[in-house]
Specification:
Length: 469
Amino acid sequence: MYSCISHHYLAHVHSVNFTKTFGSSGSSLRDFRVFATSMAANQASTYIPAAPIFLPEGPWKQIPGGVTAAEGFKATGIYGKLRAKGEKPDLALVTCDVDATSAGSFTTNVVAAAPVLYCKSVLDISKTARAVLINAGQANAATGDAGYQDVIECTNTLAELLKIKPEEVLVESTGVIGHRIKKEALLNSLPILVNSLSSSVEGADSAAVAITTTDLVSKIVAIESLVGETKVKVGGMAKGSGMIHPNMATMLGVITTDARVASDVWRKMVQVAVNRSFNQITVDGDTSTNDTVIALASGLCGLSQISSLETDEAVQLQACLDAVMQGLAKSIAWDGEGATCLIEVSVTGANSEAEAAKIARSVASSSLVKAAVYGRDPNWGRIAAAAGYAGVSFDQNSLRVQLGDIVLMDGGEPQLFDRVAASDYLRKAGETHGTVEIHMSVGSGRGCGQAWGCDLSYDYVKINAEYTT
């Protein structure tokens, strides 16, 4: 099993082994169907199963609760009549009892959605936030000033209901580009949304379901770990299945923690974690207009404030943050539209972490590699080619490519290997919706990195050909 330990982990994580933790979800969730259950009117009434969580191993333990696991946070998800069809929850809210140190990471797409522009402007003027409102159904992207004003009206109304300032509300949207939020339906739903807030696991689960679109599973996770001598909790939820590509691949995420962190340190830590997780996944090569990750730190765990990135506590919290975001990111790639397996690309021997990550991302993004995996074809030439055009210089005579435990190329030369066994490895991963591991070495440097993607199937084309019809 491949192990890549960055220098940020070395002081506290002695063997980070990127194993797959499926939990009670089973090995394959593609056969699950959405099912309904009779519940109170202010609760989610339609559910999809939870995704398997692929946490890296480390000095933490997984706990229930998602975004509500950390002290001070509440969440909910309800059906607000925003979806084009069906009654799956489509409106989510995450709140904090106190002013939470805030951070955000956003799409690099120039055609950025109204909520992205709004959140950027709010984070520029405020270091804290109290609420994150999320809708599914309409992306509110490419909607001009009218779409932006919709965001302002919704945040003002929610702020009034929560008795907080409008600039303490952040917004995320997902759905069809060019469609404004169904404002009347959203505004009418806000009192119900606020009244159904809960610090329970159920509140977090309903929020995670409410933000999904073409997702077949919800993505939610929380961990607990010692930071210094204090127990700290970090949780999160995310959505994404298609239109996923590095540079904030349509994905949304909310991360919460009860650690106490200075604003400038927290924002740097969040961006580092995003670069190691959400910016290292790809499904289809399309970067969304709406990609957003909001991270809030309540400071209620009792830990003294982390004021420098150089402290042991900062290193430990960074590792926890990386783990949560990587767990969610890998679940997004696993749930890629039409996918039958997760592809994990691990690169060692590069000159730096950034170069290794770039090579891994290039391979995971290759349509030819993804198609070969779907076709159960161990075509190592496509892997080598994708590494070669990554834009990173390395000696091709040092290139090694390995599929699972099977060495396909070494010293820049093809190796004799059991093609039937290699194809069978790919086939079994597809049949169980498991993981295809591609290991690469490009030299003798200390840089290592990973990226995650999925195979490219016929169903991906079908899903996206009929997206609005």
